[in-house]
Each structure stands twice: as C-alpha cells, then as structure tokens.
Amino acid sequence: MSDNIIILMIGVSTFLGALGLLALLWGVKSGQFDDQSKFIDATRFDNEEDLRDAAMMEEKRQKRAKKKKEDKSYMPPD
Amino acid sequence: MKEVACTHCHLKFSEDVMITETHGEHTLYFCCNGCQGVYHLLNEEGLGSFYDKLGDTTLQPAAQKHDDLERFDLEGFKNKYIKVHEDGLYEIHLIIEGIHCSACVWLNEKVLHKTPGILEASINYTNNKAKVLFDPEEIKLSKIIETIRSIGYNAYPYDPALQEERAVSTRKSYYMRILVAVFGMMNIMWLAIAHYAGYFSGIEQRFKDILNVAEFILATPVLFYSGWIFFRGAYYGWKNRIVNMDTLVATGALSAYLYSIYAMVTKTGEVYFDSVVMIITFVLVGKYLEVLSKKSAVDTLDSIMGTTPTEVTLIKGNSKALVSVENVTQGDLIELKPGEKVVIDGKVVSGEASFDESSLTGESEPILRQKGDEIRSGSICLDSVIRYEATKDASSSLLSSIVSLLEESITKKPRIEQLANTVSGYFSTTILLIALATFAGWYLATGSFERSLIVGISVIVIACPCALGLATPMATLVGISLAAKRGILFKEATYLETMAKSDLLALDKTGTITEGKPSVIHAQVEADFDPALLYALTESSNHPVSQGIKRYLETRYEKLSTPTLTEIKSIEAKGVEAYCETTHLLGGNAALMRSHGIKIDHEGEHTLFYFAVGQEIKAYFELSDRLREGAKEAIEAIQKMGIRVVMLTGDHEASAKRIAQVVGIEEVYARLLPQEKAALIDRFHQEGHIVVMAGDGINDAIALARSDIAIAMGNGADVAISVSDVVLLDERPKSLQEAYRISRRTFRAVKENLAFSLLYNLIAVPLAVAGYVTPLIAALSMSLSSLIVVANSMRIKSLRFREDSREQR
C-alpha cells in the first residue's frame, strides 16, 4: 500500500465529515436547533402550505423594503 | 346524561349545558361563547386543519376576557419591552399562555403570519416564548396581543435582555464548541486505534507520520476553538493570581499538544493528540450541562416576571389614567383592582379588600385592609376595588428596597473554598515546578537540551491531563444530570460540593414546608348538597379559600358541570353571593352567614367556609395551610444525616410552633422580618456553620442571598429564584433530602477520584522524572486512569437507582 492511498483515504473521509460538521454548525448558528420539540415536529407538519407561508412572509418584507426605499428617494421640494 | 366534547377545546361536559349548532348533518358543541367564537374565526380564516393537527389534545376554554389592552401601547411599556431595529421595525418578545401541543404553536404562528404588519413570528414550543417582528406603522402591539387572545391564548411581554439573551448565546456557543470537539475526538480515536495497533504489531515510520499529521490537523481546531474557554478561564485566573481548574486543563492540554508536535516533527516517540481532545471534550461537556441547567432556571423566571405590573391606575379628579410606576409621586391616588399586585406602598383611602401578603410576611391567610390601613408593595389585592394614597414613590417602596438590599447581599455572598479547585490548584503548581526541576536536573546531568526537554514535558503529560482533569467534572456531571432528572436544578456544579459540606438547614415555613395556600382538611356535607352549585360559586372568585374549595371539589367529584350564575357579588373578606336562576347561593365565613341571619354554632381554630343554599347551610369546610407531602419524613431523614434543621418564618409563633411540632423541628424563629431572617443567617455563619436555606418568597430573598446555598421552590417568587443556587422544580420536600444525598454522594466520588489520581501520580510522576516513561506506559496509564475515574463517577448513578427501587418496594 502506498502512502498516497492512505493520505487520500484519510483526507477524503475527514473532508466529507467536516462538510457535515460545517452544515451542522451553520444550523446551530442560524437558530434551527433552538427548539428541540419544534424541530422534530417540523417533519410531521411539513407541507406545501408552509412553503407558501414562507413565500408570503418574504413578499411582505420585500414590499416593506420597497416602500421604505420609495419614501427615502422622495425628496421634498424646497 | 351524555357527555360530549367541545368542538374547540375538546373538554367534556354534559350535553345539556353545551351551546349547540347544527350544520346539515353535523352538530357542533361548544362549552362557551369563547370557544364558539374561536372555532368560527379559524374556519373563516381557512385554518380548520388545526383541529386535524390537534388530535385528542384538550385545550383551555377560550373564555378569558381582559380589558388591559391599552396598557400595551403606553410609552413606558414600549421603553421597557420593545427593541427598535435600525430599519424601524419593532421587536417584541412574548410569553404565550395556553400552548399545549405543537398544533397550538402552528396555529399561533399561522395567525400571526397572516396578520398584516407582522414580518416575523416564531414561537418556541419548549418554553412557549415567541419573538415577533412588526412594523409599527401598520400594527400596534395591543392589536397583536388582541389577535393572539382572539384565538383563545394569552400573551404577555417579557424582557429577554435580562438573562435570556445571554443564556441562549452561551448555550449556542458551547454547543458549537462541543460539536467540533466531538467530531475531532471521534476521528482521532479511529486514527489512534491504527496507532496503537501499529505500536504492538509494528508500523513503518512513514505511515506513522501520515497518522500523526492527520491527528494534528484534527486536534488543532479542537484545542484552540473548543478549548478556548479554558484558555480564557486560565487567563482570568492568572490575572487574579489564582491557579484554577481551567489553568490545569489549559496547561495540560497545551503541553501535551506541544510535546506531540515536537514528537511529530522530530519523528521520535509517540504523539498524544488523542489525550488532548479527550480532556477538552469531556470537561467541556461537563461545563455545558451547567449552562443548560442555568437556562431552564431562566425560563421559569421569565414567565413569573412578565406578570409584574409596570403601570398603575392613577385617579386624578374624576378621570383615571394608567401611569408608569416611575412617575407616581407621594400623595397620588391609586386604584387597585382585584388580582393586581401592589407595586407602591400606601394607605387605603376608600374601600376594603383582603390582601395576600404571603410573599412578604409568609402568612398564608389573607388579611383585611380597611380605610386608614397601610398596604405594602408585594402584596396582592384579592377581592375588591380599593383606592389608596401613595405614601412613598416606587423606588423607596418596600418591594424595591428589598430588591436593592438583595443586590447588595448577592455581591457579599460568601463563597466556600472548593476542595477540588484548591487541590488541583496546588497540584498543578507542584507539577509545573517538578517539571521545571526535572528539566533543570536532566540538563545539568546530561547536558542534552533535547533529552531534558522531552523528559520535562513527559512529566506534565503523564501527570496531569486525564485523571485529575476529569476527577471533579466527571463526578459533578453525573451528579448534576441525576439531580436534574429528579427536578433539582443546580445552577453551578460547585454548589454540589458546598451543599455536601453544609451542616445547617434553615427552612421557611409558608410555601416550603407547607403548600402556602389553604386546602380543605375537613368537610361536612348535607345529603342534598349539590357540588356543582358550589363549584360554580367558587369559580367566580380568586380568593385563596375559594380556590382551595375548588381544588377539593375537583378531586372529590368527577366532571362537574357549571350552572350559570347571575348577580355574582363578592363581599370583601367575607365571601361570595350569587343566584342560580332563583336560588340564592351564599358561600363564605361565619360573619357572612350571620349577616344574612343564618345561625352558626361551629367553632374551629382553622379557617371555616360555609355554603348555604336558600338560607340553609348545606356544607361546611375547614381549611388550613397543609403540609407538603412527605415533609415530615424528609426533615427526619435530613436530621438523621447530622444536619441541624431550623425554621425561620414571618408567621406568628403559635402557628409556627404547631407546624414545627408536626414535622419535628425543635428550633423555631417566628415573627421575622426579611432583614431579621438575613441577620439570623449571618449569626449562623459566625457560629461557623455552612448554611443551606430553603425558601420561596420575597421575604426569604435576602436570607437566601446571604446563605451559602440557597434553595428555591420552582413556583416561588421571582427574586427568590434568581438569587438561589438550586431550584426544586417539583417543590417536594423530599427533593431537599435528595439534593443532600446526591451532593454528598457526588462529593464522595470527587474525593475518591482525587485520591485515586493523586495516588496514580505518586507512582507515575517519579517514573517520569527518572526518565522511564516509555510510550507504552504513558498510553496505557493515561487511558486506564481516566477510565477508572469515569467508571467511579458513573457509580453515583447506579447506587442511586438501587436505593430508589428499595424505597419503592
């Protein structure tokens, strides 16, 4: 067995594991694990409707941002 | 009579009291208008699938009506609870009452999402806390709370900045550090297996190098990211000239790490990266558990604090106005409604009402306050509307002055020197000195710098990390988690040790030994007594006596329907009067009966409650503040452990003595004001005792803060919980005894572990100094010693369970 095979095996497996770890860390950081019970229930209640809800909330945010922008760009004539 | 379930809340009532609606083939049943309203609202909004998600869970009937909405839009409220974002959005944290299942969370989020102006709403199921982000130009806070109430839940704001934000972020950071540490440890372990296998059956240096480098790469983030906490702790310790546990872990892990790098680069000897990650991971997990138990205590606290009023109703001429408590000055006229908490001291001007002062004096029975009487902040108005004149402003009122006294006390809180920390402190200093001496000795003897450095480092490596580093955390870890399972939250691991050393237990009476609310101890009913009528009557009053009767009826009789009462009138400090159709109902004390011309001939030392239907007594009850279950046995067992038990109470001597006699306490101190309780604790200290104090009220808070270990009841006053070190969630006195046993058992395990690792070091260190530490000895002894420590700590658990099963039998 050559050195390179070993290096490759350890390297690739550790790298894959590290990817999983990073995803997990991102999840923790963005608050997805703050509520354990909800996290488990999410699988039970996951459906199209929730997706639509999320889209609706996003729309609301954008609308507000747009409105804010318009308000700002409006310069009172002096 | 058939019982049917309410379509909304699923609670069962008999069919004839339900509101029915027929929709084609379906018949809908509702227990009240509230439920009916919510059901139709949800269906109109297209949220009917809530009921599919709900399953068989029962909810609270959606009956409650509040008229305090306008206070949520007041300026003082906004300043206190709302966080304004940079882009003009408002953030508010709410605690939502009435959440029973995940369907409730779903429903609340859904409804909030649909409300215009709300940009984000997320509810935590575990602690029922919600974070809502909204646009103040589109929606007001009162409207949000109204929305939540309209679907049958209740919400009140709390201030997360107090403790929660910090608790949450520490928890997250610990969690991430642990994830990294566990990942590193698991991967290094399987590399280490190859290493060990190679050690016994031979391995080429080139493969060894590859493994070494891989381990090095994995260990580095663990040491510097996950282990950062220990370096920080060690730094603060060094700044304050203290050698602490963190110093030991940090120096141990770091020296093993440096030595391993040296071994890796020079290709001599073995690397110890596996020991580095193992010690970091284990000690970190122990610290994380401490953080967790702190977090749950904070959760309990927030829900209590959210109910303290920030505004009072001020009377100015003919108009009423809600004014934030800070703006009230001496001489202002304040109106107090039933159920409200007094926040400002004053003198009653008109009206009379009973006050629950148990949080101040510990006296369990309500006290009547009439015109001219003083009322004290912290007490709760129970049964009628009164007006009083403020004699002090908010900051100098009793409640606030107790709080400021408390703050002072906390900073003065005595700390007992921790055995484990002192031992490991001395130990690590000694080891560092020995290592230095070894290095110097070898250098002088052989003149080889490299050889002396390796031997010197090997002393540190073999001496310190695992066994001694794990001795305390491992045992306390098992102890804390065991305690948490039994509803005992230790806020810090070190408290286990302090508690184990204590020799004096001071108990508060009301709420600690007793339940703190009156319960029926004797009942006498006539043959034609209808419990449903009395149940309906008691439901209309929140007086503790009524509540006590209500609880009694609930346990005694099954499924009581509530007939509708009219003309409900509560008579101050006497009782309640009402009509059921045309029947006249009367429930209250002897004075009430006499005033209605009913003759009473009972006499009793306890509180008496009579129930009359149409001028005839149908039932009478004797109520008294009942002992908590198992109080006597627990106190007996604690005394058997050789602990002196004393009782401190604000109640009068006779009732204190009576309770003390029943539970077997000989030393009783009665009629104590909060400050006097604290003074007594100080006196015990001067006598050389290590004092554990258990209490639940504001009146105990100062004494709790002064004691070495403060134990609070889970439902106690907020201040009491926040100053305490241990919280008993289930409030059983038996938990007190269990807390003692767990802490003593844990402390014994800590001592055993320390003794063992010291013994181990006594053998291993001289070998290392002499330069005899071969890699085999190092690897074997290290893992073996830590295994023994872990196994010994686990014994706390198994021993405990065996005792439990014996108790159950």
* Total domains of chain A: 2
Quote the CATH topology of one domain in chain B: Rossmann fold
Mean pLDDT of chain B, nearest integer?
76
Strand content of chain B: 15-25%
The shape of chain A, in one word, is elongated
Helix content of chain A: over 70%
- Cα-based radius of gyration of chain A, to the nearest Å: 23 Å
The gross shape of chain B turns out to be elongated
What is the count of β-strands of chain A? 0
- Lateral strand order in the biggest sheet of chain B: 19-31-30-29-20-27-28
Biggest protein-protein contact in the assembly: A-B, 29 and 32 residues
Biggest sheet statistics of chain B:
7 strands, mixed
Tell me what you see in this structure.
The complex is a heterodimer of chains A (78) and B (809). By secondary structure, chain A is mostly helical. In chain A, 81% of the residues lie in helices and 0% in strands. Chain A has helices at residues 3-29, 36-45, 48-73. The longest helix of chain A is centred in the N-terminal third of the chain and has 27 residues, at 3-29. Chain A is elongated and about 65 Å long. Chain A has two domains: 1-33; 35-73. Chain A starts with a helix and ends in a 5-residue tail after the last helix. Among the domains of chain B are: 3-54, Ribosomal Protein L24e, Chain: T (Roll); 69-157, Alpha-Beta Plaits; 311-342 and 344-398, Calcium-transporting ATPase, cytoplasmic transduction domain A (Distorted Sandwich), CATH 2.70.150; 487-514 and 628-744, HAD superfamily/HAD-like (Rossmann fold, 3-Layer(aba) Sandwich). Helix content of chain B is 52%, strand content 20%. Chain B has 27 helices and 31 strands. In chain B, the strands form seven sheets. Chain B has a seven-stranded mixed sheet with strand order 19-31-30-29-20-27-28, sandwiched between helices. A six-stranded antiparallel sheet of chain B has the order 11-10-12-18-13-16. In chain B, strands 21-26-25-24-23-22 form a six-stranded antiparallel sheet. Chain B is elongated. Chain B starts with a strand and ends with a helix. Chains A and B meet through helix 1, helix 2 and helix 3 of A and helix 4, strand 7, helix 6 and helix 7 of B.
